[in-house]
């Protein structure tokens, strides 16, 4: 009995010490408006006003494109006896990849709605709301 109690207590302590991830949200209410992912930052500011905190940065992202040469795929199908599964193995070898980097404008806004509600972190990418995250209670 004592061993079972200690095992349960240990498990509860480990769960209590595990890091808690901030909750992700798809939308939240601001004044009488619903703010959801995909909105433009001008629309959010019009409905919610100025954020309590605002941070801007530029992030470089690598974008990759993969192109296939249809003539080579058709040729591999003929050699494979028109077996589709065999042609798929060739597609990986036929791909032509092109990669380039782009600049993405990132803005993070924090709204503080007071002690009765969670603060909201909004992440905009190139002017569009991409992520909403619940933070701690406001003040």
Automatic annotation (TrEMBL):
InterPro entries: DUF2845. The keyword Signal applies. Keywords: Signal. It holds the Pfam family DUF2845. Residues 1-22 form the signal peptide. This is DUF2845 domain-containing protein.
């Amino acid at each position: 009995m004592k061993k079972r109690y200690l095992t349960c207590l240990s498990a509860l302590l480990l769960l209590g010490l595990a890091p808690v991830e901030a909750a992700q949200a798809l939308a939240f209410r601001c004044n009488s408006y619903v703010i959801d992912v995909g909105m433009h930052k001008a629309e959010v500011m019009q409905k919610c006003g100025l954020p309590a905190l605002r941070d801007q940065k530029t992030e470089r992202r690598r974008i990759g494109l993969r192109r296939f040469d249809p003539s080579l795929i058709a040729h591999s199908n003929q050699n494979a006896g028109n077996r589709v599964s065999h042609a798929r193995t060739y597609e990986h070898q036929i791909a032509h990849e092109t990669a380039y980097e782009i600049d993405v404008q990132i803005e993070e806004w924090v709204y503080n709605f007071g002690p009765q509600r969670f603060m909201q972190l909004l992440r905009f990418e190139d002017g569009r709301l991409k992520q909403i995250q619940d933070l701690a209670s406001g003040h």
